[in-house]
Amino acid sequence: MKVCELFKKSKKPLFTFEILPPLKGVNISTIYDAIEPLMEFDPAYINVTYHQQETVYKKRQDGLLEKKVVSKRPGTVAISAAIKFKYKVEIVPHLICGGFTKEDTEDALIDLHFLGFNNVLALRGDPPKTERFFRPEEGGHKYAIDMVKQIQQMNKGIYLDSDLQNVTKTDFCVGIAAYPEKHAESPNKEIDMKYLKEKVDAGADYIVTQMFFDNNKYYDFVNSCRKEGINIPIIPGIKPITSLNDIKSIPKIFHIDIPYEFMKTIENCKNNKEAAEAGIEWATYQSKELVKFGVPSIHYFTIGYSQNIVRIAKEIF
After folding, report:
1. Which domains does the chain have, with CATH numbers?
2. The whole model's pTM is what?
3. Which tens digit of pLDDT belongs to each residue from 221-237?
4. Can you say whether the dihedral through the CA atoms of 136, 144, 91, 130 is positive or negative?
5. In this structure, are residues 298 and 238 in contact, taking their beta carbons and an 8 Å threshold?
6. How does DSSP assign 42-77, residue by residue?
């Protein structure tokens, strides 16, 4: 079932989460171990993320530099299929612009359509850790809006090669990302909102937000979206803090604020275990308030670890 239909059908907020594919060489059992404890809460769907392979330049004996792949994750399509058919649950695979040509994107969508998927999350994606700025693949999409347009073309039966035979219309529900505190690369919130509205007008069906720790940021963002005529579901993304270092690393990496009250709580923690407990308490508080606000769903970022999400879900769902 399409995600957008699930939102319409449900009379209460849905529980959803996303998992990170394991690094190449790691068995899929690590994914199952993270998913298994969360299945008792009957997730409406599970997102499967995708990350570009990471490369470094190593000096050769002749003095020239050679590009080497140092980190790679297995294909999202294969992992999504494995989870879908093992747990009989809806899966939302992530598709990113980075590292993909338009043909690669089309091939992935063809495979997903063949396997019975009808949900995708269309993202530009972050640059690899070894690169400072995002660079699209040659022949690939520069922005997520271009991928949204390609998916909608395929939903109409229009493929890249007009001579391609035996084509069928796909039927994908398309999710996109948004940033309540604006994207790090946007000069201001107004420009960020403009780009978001363009993605929605291009055919996006729902929005999932970047993590936030101050619910007022989300409430204000939703109100701003509605004023701009963005009326599709806006799903809040929640990630519990798990270590003392998170209050320093998360604002730097994701360019989001940590509320003063919560920051002081974490600073008073003596170790990572206490910080993780505080993170669970804060995320539970956030979730309860979001349910009162009337969100269609709450989406949790597990980052491969689910025990903290289990604690939260027991309080909320």
Report:
1. 3-316 (3.20.20.220)
2. 0.90
3. 999 999 999 999 999 99
4. positive
5. yes
6. --SEEEE---PPEEEEEE-TTS-EEEEEEE----HH
